[in-house]
Amino acid sequence: MALGIKKANTKAWQLLLLGILAGLYIGLGGHVFLVALEQGMGKILGGAVFSVGLILVVIAGAELFTGNILMVVSTVLSLYSIKKVLKNWVAVYSGNFLGSILLVLVIWNCGLLGSAGQPNALGEVAHNVSQSKMALPFSEAFLRGILCNILVINHLFFYN
User: Fold this and answer.
1) DSSP strand E in the chain: where?
2) Which of 38, 47, 59, 153 is the most exposed place for a label (fewest CB within 10 A)?
3) Which CATH class is domain 2-159?
4) CB within 8 A of 9, min separation 6: which ones?
5) Domain positions in the chain
């Protein structure tokens, strides 16, 4: 509960910056996952190295939108206002989005995935992973999202 109160009282610009960092960190975890797949290390090892992104979020104290959804509990208990929660959500979500877009721009422009129309092996893996995720029915994607966020909830309850 104390963590939620701290988050609710953090300035919007700080939340935005911490959100940008989290977007970058989770994106880096995703990139390392793709590298592991491309190197033939398989999905299990790829999933394990993806966790580097979440570890960076925890160590750096960055703000991830999915974990901040739990602020609703303290709002229901009247520990802070819905206005503060909405401020947090907008700033952190915007930051996560900006951080991920920034990382995409850097990765694309430095040639790690190849070039437009000529992806390298890593670019092909990224394309195949994105195509398979886009082909999922909504219900499957939604339920997989819930499973992924178990890690985030674990982080909130045990490491803060």
Assistant:
1) 114-115, 118-119
2) 59
3) mainly alpha
4) 80, 84
5) 2-159
Q: How far apart are alpha carbons 12 and 32 in whole angstroms?
A: 30
Which amino acid appears at position 7 of this protein? K
Write out pLDDT tens, residues 105-133: 999 999 999 998 899 999 999 999 999 99
Residue ranges of the chain whose pLDDT lies below 70: 1, 151-160
- Residues constituting the chain: 160
Measured CA to CA, the distance from residue 112 to residue 99 in angstroms comes to 18
pTM: 0.86
Amino acid at 134: M
B/e letters for 110-124, b = 16+ CB within 10 Å, e = fewer, are eeebbeeeeeeebbe
What whole-number distance in Å separates Cα of residue 120 and Cα of residue 20? Answer: 28
